[in-house]
Structure formats: C-alpha cells, structure tokens
Amino acid sequence: MPIPARIQFTTRLMPKMVVIMPVVVTLTLAAGWQLSTLLGTNLTVHRTNGWVGRQHDRGGVDVRIALGLLERRTSPS
Question: What pTM was estimated for this model as a whole?
Fold first, then answer.
C-alpha cells in the first residue's frame, strides 16, 4: 500500500478501534478468568497460578490503558 493510502486507512480505522478495543480487552479478561476457574489454574495450589495471575494483571493494565485513551479522546479539550 502506498503511504498516503496507509495514512487514510489508519485515520478512518483508529476512532473505531478506540471504542472497540476496551470492550474486547474486558471481555477477553473475563473469559480468561472464567476459563481458568473452570480448569482450576487460578487456585493457589496449582503450579501455573503465578503465570495465570500475571496474565490477568497484564489484561487489567491493558483495560486501564484502553479506557484512559478512550476518556482522553472523548473529553472536551
């Protein structure tokens, strides 16, 4: 793709992504928690508990970043 077409594509896509991505991240985090509960990997006695906990923490950070970007974009300047 030529550079001007890339810029136009990104300019059209980004406002939609700023709205969609916080929702996707939140749903993914909730689904991951439900799956880990079903598999039992979020129990403290499970050998992968630390790894699962770190991944959920990372997802929470992603949600905060995405919502912060959304708030900054929608707040009046």
Answer: 0.53
